[in-house]
Write a structure and sequence with these properties.
homotetramer; about 290 residues; alpha/beta; Alpha-Beta Plaits; Rossmann fold; 2 domains; seven-stranded mixed β-sheet; about 30% strand
Chain lengths: ~290, ~290, ~290, ~290
């Protein structure tokens, strides 16, 4: 059972950043497991992720509260945007799904196997197809039928459920509805979607049909944070599969399902492991 | 040294097509090496490629002229669009290049190694950078400086050179000029270009800069036949490479060079081996 | 609902093969959907797969029995090893599994979605972990505890179950037991296994540990027909994933699970679609 | 024109390492461009690569000699194995080649384009095929015919040439001779070879023939440091390409050439950029 802390930092690049952060961690006796940094020279930005153990082998526990207090002036001094996470506090995740269940089934199986380090208190769907899977994995399932007319009140229902469950991250696992700008603003960079194309190619509806029509030789899938502009949020992961003239639209859809599963589950796992730093419309993925 | 014939067929799909073609080939004693077919059920089209040896092991030569005559009524009967190629007649290819020489160097080296089954009588460039490579590989190099004002007369010069050399296929190996519609119409589906993005994403100029700006996680390259609409012709081959937040535009450009080399050289080799059938804006690639 | 027939042929290569087969199909009015051929010139072998519809759009049903009778002398004449399958007869498949359930979960979900064209009457396991999944998907689950001492009698139990259920294909979905030569001989090229390495590298137990120790930069997985020699049967499919020095053995195992799922499910789907022809220790995969 | 320094560190893992190194760099005013670390928890080892500019934008030059002196006691204190490189000192590289020239042509073209940050004072070959390419790129070519009988004296000749040219790295670009243990010991982890298989599969001669015989569905290539044991040195890079039953041995060889070029050129570029740390039989590749 992992017992560690992760510190994520974004700030203007300047000299002495690593020395300051690593010096403070050393002062508190941190046993660092992973550390990674990145600089975007064009933007003049510095990014850092450090992970260290909280219960040392020699029995000395790391005083996370004291460290947090001591780190505050450092963060202010370097104008850092920083987050401090401890593994004991599991992120709470809601999955939204419609009728295509392959991503849902994949996420639930991975969660059960321990690949996704989170709690999943609920699944919300505008259809009932996903209910048996939810029940099998012991997760609450909420069916909220959606029509254009009732969207505002239904989103209100969704938000009540999400807030009651303390949800931090919403995963759209082939959820075939567009979220309102209000919803998106309420969960900034905390909604992950999978789009069934290699973005920015084939934005919008029926991308496999569009890919077939264009005669491409590879199809793709993209996971990204949802922003107010459709299919335009920061990309987290992409993957492709080779197709040929023998593949009809149905074959593209079938091959695409495997891509969708992969890019979505990777994005969720990385988000949960606090390995993603977003800036502007881009992501840094620490590996 | 290969001595074979290739028959390429496109026609409306109907029963008896394979029986008719293979029956006629059998009647002439063809020793088939490869045969492949495809049906596009949506379009109701049938595609076929057959390759057979011309000089049999038992010394009996295949009478290609007699077969061609006998096949004509069959082709008419089935409303076939057919091509008959013999390996003894090498396609003649011209390469157009500007200042980026990686595709040119790659094509010339592959040609020398025997990977590209063609003659390359000439290279045309709007710069002089490619001249030493051309000279090293013993190929004529023509420098035709281009300005917007002189394009018509310069294209006229190009066409004179291409016609004098009996060129069948023009390869744009990172040629940074747009061909006129008149030029394209003169060489229908006989100009192959490499575009340095995963089409249809990032059409037009500076695709690596656009990819960097969008924050994609894979970059691509596409080889395609040139049509009058920019970057919209039938796609022949595509490939991608993974990038990360660590890659700057220059890294994208460097990684992209390898993709460009691969997708362009594959497209040219397949075209020369008569493995591509184009229909509408798509390609069938027989492997 | 597909209603088609598939003819698979392996025979010594000679002239007139395609003409004979396609002529006979034409005589019976077959509406061919797919046809593919291959020649192994070294071995002098010819391979063919033809698929055609049984209920034509114009209402005329294809007389499969009459065709079968008429084809017999042709097959004998050309010394063909041929199989004739109709889609109405679904192959019956048993899945063997131990404690790692990712391949089982994947196969069952794909089956439910219609990706695998078969019946799955039973699952056999030397553990009970897979039972809930089996029950969820409504498939009989048989727990047969295995020890070295009891293997013969337990395999006898397995065979009774397989024969009672009319099983044609056995899929080893991370079944961590070695089948006896007698078992393998009873199901020749009808047992598909997934090995968690890029064969022939890392044959045998704990391949991820071996890969980690060797410091490879890619890990792989392989699906293959089981023969009496361990991990040496004809390969059906392989795939790889990139790893780095950051990946520990546990990361290799996690990344490998995705590869195992993919290569095993593809192999099973291709087998069921009658797209695999085995010869010697190799496979032809018609796409 | 890059003007930077790279510090590479390998040492037993312990607390305070990053604080010590980054603190010292900060004290000297280093403007860090890239920094990366890795811990091998099994081995208890720490790895670090830091790169910083030597001529700052504000005109303040970094005093590399003073830093080196100040760093010595830190390195001793932490029992570091450290290397300090400055970009102004270009590594000097010799290429060994036999008759297959694709890797040589690729390396020379990349070098000319500026992708490989080194000097290439000489090429050594047991054949004369590579001489025109060497001459085209203006590099000295030495033909040393090799027979088993004359190997010792010929290796002696090679070593005289390498030493006279101040060569730090030897690249075996499809050099079809086995180096003696004495030679290998003289250039420890400073000889990079490309093996035309996915190691550890198909060690030794004619790997494409072995891969064809085994019926694999992917072929690979591997670049690695040469050790005294054949094809067993630390792996730097690997890549694979998909093949099918249609591919004969010649097709494997042709597809493999592209893999060989890629994995060898990447390995050389990474070595030159001081991005590789070797330990035991493994490599850390900082990206």
């Amino acid at each position: 059972m992992k017992d560690s802390a992760v510190l994520l930092i974004t700030c203007p690049d300047q000299k002495g950043l690593v020395a300051a952060v690593s010096g403070e961690l050393y002062r508190f006796g941190a046993n660092i497991i992973h550390a990674d940094q990145h600089r975007d020279h064009d933007e003049g930005l510095f990014f850092m992720r450090v992970e260290w153990t909280l219960s040392d082998e020699d029995g000395q526990p790391f005083d996370i509260q004291a460290f947090s207090n001591a780190f505050t002036p450092i963060a202010q001094n370097f104008r850092m945007d920083s987050q401090l996470h401890v593994s004991a506090v599991k992120p709470r995740v809601a999955i939204f799904v419609s009728q295509h269940l392959h991503c849902l089934a994949d996420l639930l199986h991975r969660h059960q196997m321990g690949e996704l380090d989170c709690e999943i208190p609920l699944i919300i769907s505008n259809h009932t197809d996903g209910e048996p899977l939810a029940r099998f994995y012991g997760i609450q399932f909420h069916h909220i039928a959606l029509t254009a007319a009732t969207r505002p009140e239904n989103e209100a229902k969704q938000i009540v459920l999400l807030e009651a469950a303390g949800v931090e991250l919403v995963v759209l696992a082939r959820y075939m509805q567009i979220l309102s700008p209000e919803f998106v603003r309420r969960y900034p960079y905390r909604v992950i979607n999978v789009h069934h194309s290699f973005l920015p190619a084939f934005i919008g509806a029926r991308p496999y049909h569009a890919a077939y029509k264009r005669g491409v030789k590879l199809i793709g899938a993209t996971s990204h944070y949802v922003t107010e502009e459709l299919d335009d949020g920061p990309i987290i992961e992409q993957d492709v599969a080779r197709i040929s003239h023998r593949d009809q639209v149905d074959d593209l859809i079938a091959k695409g399902r495997d891509l969708e599963r992969m890019v979505l589950s990777r994005a969720v796992a990385w988000h949960l492991d606090r390995r993603i730093l977003r800036y502007g419309n881009k992501t840094v993925i620490f590996d």
